[in-house]
């Protein structure tokens, strides 16, 4: 008997805006402070909604958005803000 495994992809489970917001919020909570987890979450959410359309709506090139949100990416804050606005998400500060 052979078992077959597939790679987990969070993007396939992000169906509603509420799920996307909760996922990003959880990643903000768990991020180590380097932004890696938040960047990965934005990548997952953008792929779930359609990277090409997100890039177009944000005024960015699709390839550059993939690169910025990829595992080796280091997006500028303006890129993060543009993507979040297009995704219908916003940053919110609270005290800890």
From TrEMBL:
Q: How is this protein named in the record?
A: Putative addiction module antidote protein
Q: Which residues form a coiled coil?
A: none
Question: According to the entry, what is the taxonomic lineage of the organism?
Answer: Bacteria, Pseudomonadati, Pseudomonadota, Gammaproteobacteria, Pseudomonadales
In terms of PANTHER family, this protein maps to: SSL7038 PROTEIN (PTHR40275:SF1)
Pfam families from the UniProt entry? dnstrm_HI1420
Q: Which domain of life is it from?
A: Bacteria
Q: Which SUPFAM superfamilies match?
A: lambda repressor-like DNA-binding domains
Against InterPro entries, the record matches this protein to: HI1420 (IPR014057), Lambda_DNA-bd_dom_sf (IPR010982)
Can you name one GO molecular function term for this protein? DNA binding
